[in-house]
Structure formats: structure tokens, C-alpha cells
Amino acid sequence: MADKPVCSCGCSCSEAEQAEEVTKRLIFPCAGVANTGQLTNCAAIQLTEEGYGGAACIALLAAGAEGIVAAARDADEVIILDGCPARCAGKIAEAKGICAAQTVIVTELGIKKSGSREYTDEDVETVVSAIWEGKGRKK
């Protein structure tokens, strides 16, 4: 599902990869304990594997670790994945002066927050697809 650069010969070679400008994206999942928070972690990891960006630790950002704060400020785009309307990850980013280019709240995608940590592969795909489709993107 990742958009890999392809040369005219049809292969994915390093020259094609170098020719494409890569957008540096950091993805902060809320990492909450409920199903929707756990789902944000799984979606962030899948998005990383698909080449959309790199998953980053929201707790580390909250703690003010210089490296992650600097990385977030240097990123071309910061993506926030919140599990519910409490928007913990979004609020942490805002408190650190980090402006998100895209924010998705899992419960707004029709996935209900429950007392369990269970979610389905379909739930993960719903969140990942929402990011790829640009839902929650600021103009």
C-alpha cells in the first residue's frame, strides 16, 4: 500500500527514491489503554511500515524530551491519532507548541470506545485508510 517511487523500467531503485522528495512525517498515537487508544498504536506502526511516516512516542513528547520535541518541530508534518474526544495526544502536542497537519479521532470514524483493549484488523484498516485518504487534514 506504500507509495514507492518507481523508475521507468518498473523497478524500485535507489535512484528513483533519491529523485522523489520525501515528506518527513511524525505520527503520534495517543496510546490510551482502551481499545481505541491501543488501535492508534497499531495504526501508527502499520503506517510506519507502509512508509507514510514514522511512529513517535507521545509520552516522550509530554515529558519534553529535547530530541522528540526538536524532531516534531523539524518534521514536515505531524500526524495525531487520538482514540477518543478527550484528545490527549492533540492536547500534548499543542502544549508543546507542535502544530498537527492532520488529526484523526478514532471514535469519529465510527469505532466505539469500550472497556476492553480488543479491536479488529478491520478497525486498524479503517484508521490507516483515513490517514491515507487525508481525513482530518488541515488545509
List the helices and strands and how they pair.
Elements: H1 14-19, E1 25-29, H2 35-49, E2 54-55, H3 58-62, H4 66-74, E3 77-82, H5 88-95, E4 102-105, H6 121-132
Parallel strand pairs: 1-2, 1-3, 3-4
Description:
The structure is a single chain. The chain has 139 residues and is of the alpha/beta class. The protein is built from 6 helices and 4 strands; from the N terminus they run H-E-H-E-H-H-E-H-E-H. The protein has helices at residues 14-19, 35-49, 58-62, 66-74, 88-95, 121-132; strands spanning 25-29, 54-55, 77-82, 102-105. It has a 4-stranded parallel beta sheet with strand order 2-1-3-4, with helices on both faces. Helix 2 (35-49) crosses helix 6. The chain is globular, with a radius of gyration of 16 Å. The model is unreliable at 1-13 (pLDDT under 50).
Mean pLDDT: 89
Radius of gyration: 16 Å
Distance between the termini: 24 Å
Q: What can be said about the biggest beta sheet?
A: 4 strands, parallel
Number of strands: 4
Order of helices and strands: HEHEHHEHEH
* Range of helix content: 25-40%
Shape: globular
Structural class: alpha/beta
What is the tally of helical segments?
6
Question: What descriptive keywords fit this protein?
Answer:
4 strands, 6 helices, globular, 139 residues, alpha/beta, 40% helix
Question: In brief, what are we looking at here?
Answer:
The protein has helices at residues 14-19, 35-49, 58-62, 66-74, 88-95, 121-132, and strands spanning 25-29, 54-55, 77-82, 102-105. It is of the alpha/beta class and 139 residues long.
